[in-house]
């Protein structure tokens, strides 16, 4: 059947008939995308939207950026192979050169790379296998609110328990630590919570009755993404590095969503001036095409041949697109642009929070931002936080959609409206995005309160 002229409704009906119940975004963003360029997408009915979803933060250069298109077309025109397992090619070696050049020198000098099948969760699985093999240990430290993918092992690291409820035998021996989150501080002390959190981790690892064996790794996001755009202070990251080093625990930093410029640094861990043992990358590293890699200190390289494989680990078009993307990000200093545009967008989110008590907290770094929606009619706790309002966040998301803006939701009870626009977003586009969000909040609050802000 030819669907080239089909409407949104027709395409959505066909999707609902045939796709599994696990589909998610079409339930909240009822559209079929026909065209896309830069920061904008156009649906099958001709409606245009600003894309602040961007493939869950994958499309750092937006849709169909010329340098990405050219890299793919050049590879195809030259009859390059499409995928090669782990047999090397000129495209692959050039990609690795570019990726290693983008890394901090101290990490790159002793780095090894493992290509994984194609999603970020595959890179996390590789990191778990690697550190368990190298240390001989089995327990893992993760964090509340963390998200590292949806495969069996990665799911075990997740802070949110709901996705685990229906999965029997989810990876055990994972111990979830408190993550600095001032608005809902796990220790009830607010901005100073990161200091207590650090002391807690240190005391836990020193306690002979802590209840678990020596860890194979600590896995953390330097800024939590799906957890609600929660950005801990650099001091806390430095403390986690110090503590793990002193206790011989490999530190795995998940940069799958934050990496390659999104937070205002090329790699988010650089703001703390630390050197991890392992870094996981996906999303932007393939230029929008499926690719995942695990980078790690060569001292951990205890794997035997074939210890970790994957059919699509040799995706050559993704390597060509990834190399072009990384070069463009570095050559055009997109991390600085992301920081500037993020500050501009955050001004709009803060303005909404100043006007509407239902916007409880605005947070994040660079172009990885979130606004947590709360129940303004409920009493605040001692730190000023009100209960999350997931229904209101969904209404805000819908109101944004109706006005031409695609946004994500995440965080506690999925009550945080999240913004992950391409790093090439312009000042004018940011102004429009901010205006639409403020109008959407006003409409949602009015609907929820019967006209009262």
Fold and architecture overview:
By secondary structure, the chain is an alpha/beta fold. It folds into two domains: 174 residues, Aspartate Aminotransferase, domain 1 (Alpha-Beta Complex), CATH 3.90.1150.10; 264 residues, Type I PLP-dependent aspartate aminotransferase-like (Major domain) (Aspartate Aminotransferase, domain 2, 3-Layer(aba) Sandwich). It has 14 helices and 15 strands. The protein has a seven-stranded mixed beta sheet with strand order 4-10-9-8-7-5-6. Helix 4 runs antiparallel to helix 11, helix 9 runs parallel beside helix 10 and helix 13 packs across helix 14. The model has no long low-confidence stretch (mean pLDDT 93).
Question: Can you tag this structure with a few keywords?
Answer:
diaminobutyrate-2-oxoglutarate transaminase activity, seven-stranded mixed sheet, aminotransferase, 453 residues, alpha/beta, Aminotrans_3, four-stranded mixed sheet, pyridoxal phosphate, single chain, 2 domains, EC 2.6.1.76
CATH superfamily of the largest domain: Type I PLP-dependent aspartate aminotransferase-like (Major domain)
Helix content: 25-40%
The top level CATH class name of the largest domain: Alpha Beta
Number of domains: 2
Coarse morphology: globular
How many strand segments?
15
The CATH topology of the largest domain corresponds to: Aspartate Aminotransferase, domain 2
Oligomer: single chain
- Topology pattern, helix = H, strand = E: HHEEEHHHHEHEHEHEHEEEHHEEHEEEH
In spatial order, strands of the major sheet run 4-10-9-8-7-5-6
């Amino acid at each position: 059947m030819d669907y080239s002229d089909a409407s949104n409704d027709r395409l959505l009906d066909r999707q609902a008939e045939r796709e599994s119940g696990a589909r998610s975004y079409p339930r909240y963003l009822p559209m079929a995308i026909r065209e896309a360029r830069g920061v904008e997408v156009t649906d099958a009915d001709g409606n245009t939207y600003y894309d602040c979803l961007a493939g869950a933060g994958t499309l750092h250069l937006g849709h169909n950026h010329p340098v990405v298109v050219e890299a793919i077309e050049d590879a195809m025109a030259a009859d390059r192979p499409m995928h090669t397992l782990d047999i090397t090619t000129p495209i692959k070696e050039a990609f690795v050169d570019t990726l290693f050049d983008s890394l901090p020198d101290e990490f790159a000098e002793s780095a090894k790379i493992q290509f994984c099948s194609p999603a970020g969760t595959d890179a996390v699985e590789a990191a778990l296998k690697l550190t368990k093999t190298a240390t001989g240990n089995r327990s893992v430290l993760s964090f509340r609110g963390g998200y590292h993918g949806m495969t069996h092992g990665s799911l075990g690291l997740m802070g949110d328990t709901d996705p685990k409820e229906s999965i029997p035998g989810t990876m055990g021996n994972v111990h979830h630590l408190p993550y600095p989150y001032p608005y809902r501080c796990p220790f009830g002390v607010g901005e100073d919570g990161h200091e207590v959190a650090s002391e807690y981790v240190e005391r836990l690892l020193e306690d002979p009755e802590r209840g678990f064996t020596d860890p194979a790794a600590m896995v953390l996001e330097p800024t939590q993404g799906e957890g609600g755009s929660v950005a801990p202070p650099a001091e806390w990251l430095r403390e986690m590095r110090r503590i793990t080093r002193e206790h011989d625990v490999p530190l795995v930093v998940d940069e799958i969503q934050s990496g390659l410029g999104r937070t205002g640094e090329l790699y988010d861990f650089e703001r703390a001036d630390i050197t991890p043992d392992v870094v996981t990358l996906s999303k932007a590293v393939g230029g929008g095409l499926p690719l995942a890699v695990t980078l790690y200190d060569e001292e951990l390289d205890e794997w035997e041949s074939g210890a970790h494989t994957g059919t699509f680990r040799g995706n050559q078009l993704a390597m060509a697109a990834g190399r072009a993307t990384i070069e463009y990000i570095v050559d055009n200093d997109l991390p600085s642009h992301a920081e500037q545009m993020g500050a501009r967008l955050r001004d709009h989110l803060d303005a909404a929070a100043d006007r509407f008590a239902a916007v409880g907290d605005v947070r994040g770094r660079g172009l990885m931002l979130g606004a947590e929606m709360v129940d303004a009619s409920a009493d605040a706790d001692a730190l000023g936080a009100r209960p999350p309002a997931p229904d209101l966040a969904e209404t805000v998301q819908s109101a944004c959609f109706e006005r031409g803006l695609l946004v994500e939701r995440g965080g506690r009870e999925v009550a945080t409206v999240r913004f992950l626009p391409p790093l090439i977003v312009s000042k004018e586009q940011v102004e429009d995005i901010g205006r639409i969000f403020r109008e959407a909040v006003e409409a949602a609050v009015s609907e929820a309160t019967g006209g009262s802000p």
